[in-house]
């Protein structure tokens, strides 16, 4: 059956159920964004033309909202608790629905069981039963619940699962045996999924799929109106919880010399003691009123927490400049409580790395807050800087629909891994050394480019400098690391073509392989396909890195990927 775009979301609102504060927040958002989704669907339909889109049956099980997982978020929706996850789930539901797929939504274990066909009263079904869904979107909590209640069919059908995972899960932490042996075990477990089954909120590492969310988009008239109506001396502080203001008196004092400071900090009866009297605190605002505040403000300022939420994108989309602190040394699971035990080795160099790296100046200023002069100079410069509202394409409704469409039509983790087996020596390798001898590319005349996605001809392979990760190496060349290309490179032939002087070649389990170790001139191939990883580095190795191009404003998709 072909999927047909939908523009009326009222049935989706029914599917989302009711009662919980979190669901009310999500439904309000979906309702408010209906017109934007409809317009985006129209545009994407035009862009895709006659492209075939299969309709899938999809279950969305939002584990963190179930009572069985403790549902700690719902009671905090109106009290300044995190809303980013709810923003994202609301947008995922909307996107799947607008794309025209068959949708079920569950937010309790009971509903999950009944949708999976687990007989009532039974903890789990020991026999494999047919699964009525092509795809299941869930989170780590939901994954655990499915494992407990699906019996043997969990193993059989886990390739259909997609895990919404805000901060990402790197391959080294995902592989059970490897994580256990090498100190990558975390509380989140090791699920031996294809790392691309984990879907993140921002494009952290290309080892995972970038899911994202949307921010409201302005039309030209609104943009002009907003630009004209800005108060050049108005600042809004990022953060709904009073705790983030603690110890920030010095910065607030400096900022207060130049600007009128507004906050949206939750409070019960009186002003939270952390928020100084000169700050105009609005309390936690409903989302549309928060947007209105951003439309008037010149500056949106972060004090280091929360990390990587939606609000800075909304601020920039509403014409604010986002000022944030640089983290030096970077925050990571090694030195910061928040990241401790998270299944990623990522180093976070500022409060919002996406804003810093993908947007940057003039919209985003990342400065060292320990240096008061630098901080003060930035504020003065920002007050003189004119910016237009800006929203990266990948965070528009159309961009999100395009990306999810591509994933649904092309990502299939139920088929055996890549056409070139790891370690295999392909007699007629499809690669050639590029004319300038810096990297490998797909030979123009290679007869059989395997039917991979992304298409294999977009591959460019580089040998990284010692100690460099593939994520960074590809970015250095204006490209993005593409882990699904690793199998093509995992051969002696690739080293040979790159003229790497291997004294010997061995095949082992290591998330940094394929790589060349300089002392000893040894080449290493990857033995375990699940461990292919863009992330990770060690000064001992020069990694062999598969890169590809990407669409401007849509880093998840290569030029020929739609
Ligand atoms: N938000 C809101 N009212 C406010 C402040 C923020 O509704 O007073 C919304 C905002 O529009 C954003 C969401 O809260 O979409 C999440 O924002 P944040 O970046 O703070 O991420 P979180 O830490 O909540 O996940």
Account of the 3D structure:
The chain is an alpha/beta fold and 562 residues long. The strands form 3 sheets. Strands 14, 15, 16, 17, 18, 19, 20 and 21 form an 8-stranded mixed sheet that branches. Strand 14 and strand 15 form a beta hairpin. Helix 11 runs parallel beside helix 15. The radius of gyration is 24 Å and the shape is globular. The two termini are 20 Å apart. About 2% of the residues have low confidence. The site of uridine-5'-diphosphate has 15 residues, from helix 4, helix 12 and helix 13.
In short:
With 562 residues, this protein is α/β, with parallel strands linked by helices. It is built from 19 helices and 21 strands. The structure holds uridine-5'-diphosphate.
Keywords:
562 residues; eight-stranded mixed sheet; alpha/beta; binds uridine-5'-diphosphate; single chain; globular; seven-stranded mixed sheet; 30% helix
Any chance you could write out the topology, listing elements then pairs?
Elements: H1 10-15, H2 21-32, H3 34-48, E1 57-61, H4 84-98, E2 102-106, H5 109-116, E3 135-138, H6 140-149, H7 152-157, E4 161-164, H8 171-174, H9 176-182, E5 198-200, E6 209-210, H10 220-229, E7 234-237, H11 249-258, E8 260-263, E9 280-281, H12 287-296, E10 299-301, H13 311-317, E11 321-331, E12 348-350, H14 353-359, E13 364-367, H15 372-384, H16 397-410, E14 431-433, E15 440-442, E16 460-463, H17 470-476, E17 480-481, H18 486-489, H19 492-497, E18 504-508, E19 515-517, E20 522-526, E21 541-548
Parallel strand pairs: 1-2, 1-3, 3-4, 4-5, 5-6, 7-8, 7-10, 8-9, 10-11, 11-13, 18-20
Antiparallel strand pairs: 11-12, 14-15, 15-16, 16-21, 17-21, 19-20, 19-21
This protein binds uridine-5'-diphosphate.
Residues 82-84, 87, 240, 264, 284-285, 287, 290, 306, 309-311, 314 line the site of uridine-5'-diphosphate.
């Amino acid at each position: 059956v072909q999927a047909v775009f939908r523009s009326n979301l009222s049935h989706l609102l029914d599917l989302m159920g009711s009662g919980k504060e979190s669901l009310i927040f999500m439904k309000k958002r979906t309702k408010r964004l209906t017109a934007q989704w409809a317009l985006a669907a129209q545009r994407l339909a035009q862009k895709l033309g006659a492209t075939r889109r299969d309709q899938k049956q999809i279950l969305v099980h939002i584990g963190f909202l179930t009572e069985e997982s403790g549902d700690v978020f719902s009671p905090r929706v109106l009290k300044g608790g995190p809303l980013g996850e709810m923003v994202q789930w609301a947008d995922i539901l909307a996107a799947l629905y607008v794309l025209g797929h068959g949708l079920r939504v569950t937010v309790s274990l009971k509903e999950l069981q009944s949708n999976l066909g687990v007989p009532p009263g039974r903890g789990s079904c020991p026999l494999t039963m047919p699964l009525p869904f092509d795809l299941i979107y869930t989170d780590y909590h939901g994954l655990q619940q499915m494992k407990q209640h699906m019996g043997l069919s969990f193993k059989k059908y886990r390739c259909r699962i997609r895990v919404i995972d805000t901060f990402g899960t790197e391959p080294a932490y995902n592989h059970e045996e490897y994580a256990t042996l090498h100190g990558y075990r975390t509380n989140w477990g090791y699920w031996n999924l294809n790392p691309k089954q984990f879907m993140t909120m921002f494009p952290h590492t290309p080892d995972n799929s970038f899911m994202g969310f949307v921010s409201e988009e302005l039309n030209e008239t609104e943009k002009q109106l907003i630009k004209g109506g800005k108060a050049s001396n108005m600042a809004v502080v990022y953060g709904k919880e009073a705790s983030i203001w603690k110890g920030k008196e010095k910065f607030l004092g400096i900022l207060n010399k130049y600007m009128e400071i507004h906050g949206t900090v939750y409070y019960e009866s009186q002003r939270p003691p952390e928020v100084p009297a000169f700050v105009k605190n609005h309390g936690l605002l409903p989302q549309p009123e928060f947007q209105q505040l951003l439309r008037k403000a010149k500056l949106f300022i972060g004090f280091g927490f929360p990390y990587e939420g939606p609000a800075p994108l909304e601020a920039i989309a509403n014409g604010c400049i986002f000022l944030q602190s640089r983290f030096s040394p970077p925050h990571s699971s090694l030195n910061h409580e928040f990241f401790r035990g998270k299944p990623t080795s990522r180093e976070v160099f500022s409060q919002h790395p996406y804003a810093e790296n993908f947007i940057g100046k003039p919209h985003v200023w990342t400065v060292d807050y320990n240096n008061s002069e630098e901080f003060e100079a930035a504020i003065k410069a920002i007050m003189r800087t004119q910016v237009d509202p800006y929203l990266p394409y990948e965070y528009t409704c159309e961009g999100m629909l395009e990306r999810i469409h591509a994933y649904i039509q092309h990502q299939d983790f139920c088929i055996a891994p890549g056409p070139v087996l790891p370690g295999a020596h392909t007699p007629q390798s499809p690669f050639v050394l590029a004319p300038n001898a810096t990297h490998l590319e797909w030979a123009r005349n290679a007869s059989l480019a395997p039917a991979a996605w992304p298409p294999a001809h977009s591959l460019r392979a580089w040998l990284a400098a010692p100690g460099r990760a593939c994520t960074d190496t590809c970015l250095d060349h204006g490209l993005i690391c593409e882990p699904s290309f690793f199998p093509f490179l995992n051969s002696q032939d690739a080293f040979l073509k790159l003229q790497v002087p291997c004294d010997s070649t061995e095949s082992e389990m290591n998330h940094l392989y394929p790589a060349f170790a300089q002392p000893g001139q040894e080449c290493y191939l990857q033995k375990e396909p699940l461990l292919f990883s863009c992330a990770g580095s060690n000064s001992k190795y020069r990694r062999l890195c598969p890169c590809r191009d990407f669409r401007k404003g849509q880093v998840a998709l290569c030029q020929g990927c739609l």
